[in-house]
Inverse folding.
């Protein structure tokens, strides 16, 4: 999972409140269309804690989130 700060910023940027698993599909599509990078809905579900997965976030996932929201602090937060 990712930090609550990053989750909140993703919600603010997208205009989507991630309350249900299906909201992750909408966010995945929005990230893909606005950043030309793709994250699967399953990845977003893992990040938001809807499904269990690894505790570490992959570098590609952080790259896409950074690109989508221009979050320069994402890497600093996880290093």
């Amino acid at each position: 999972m990712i930090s609550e700060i990053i989750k909140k910023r993703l919600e603010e940027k997208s205009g989507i409140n991630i309350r249900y698993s299906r909201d992750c599909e909408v966010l995945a599509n929005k990230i893909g269309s606005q950043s030309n990078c793709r994250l699967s809905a399953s990845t977003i579900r893992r990040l938001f804690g809807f499904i269990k997965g690894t505790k570490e976030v992959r570098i590609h996932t952080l790259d896409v989130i950074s690109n989508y929201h221009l979050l320069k602090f994402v890497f600093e937060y996880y290093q």
